[in-house]
Please model this.
Amino acid sequence: MIIAANDIVDWVSDRGDLLIAAWTPQIATMTDWEVPYAKALAGELHDGMVTSLLRGGTEANFLNLVAKSNTGLDARTERDLAERFFGVTLKLARAAHRHAQDGKATALPFKYGTVVGDARTDPSHLPLADVLLPREHPFWTRWQPPFGMDCRCGTIGMTNGQLARSGRSITPDEALPAIEAQLRDTWPAEFRPLLDFRQPPAPATPQQPTITLSQQQLDDILSAFRPDTD
Ligand SMILES: [Zn+2]
Model:
């Protein structure tokens, strides 16, 4: 597997602190290590992933780097952990990259959910397959997949023509509450800040409170700063 998109490297590289904070508790659990050691290993894995992505982005390259780094773990645990770190981090980076691409793809005004639907699929994600909405619909700010570490759900963009030919119709807003009631997101809380492809648009910057002073109040304030003349 080769990852070429510079945006993905940038995403992983720019989010070092968030990724380390998200992975530390996971690594502590997987290794039974104290938090400071888990955090140090998260930092090493992050560095190794950035290096591997810059070198062309193969998972094999990353696993080799980790194997040479003397983590002190047994080989099996080390490999499981490295594979999970790489796979899940890449999934998040790709989702963010796809979201950025979606934002530019004005020729694809609609998108629909895709669900693998095999035995490994979380059944709570199945209703995503019924969702076809304008790409700017707020549903996608709440439920842009993946919905968890093991989720393989996704979305695909659609042109007006593809929508017409598909024979499908846009999911009515009335159907969304029932769908959303079934969908389940299993990202651990520490991963939430990394789901930036799902954040609703930032609210308008709050206005600074305006203080209105009378001329007398203004004169009183200014007079306090006037040098004494006597
Ligand atoms: Zn899923």
About this structure: Residues 122, 125, 145, 147, 151-153 surround zinc ion (CB under 6 Å).
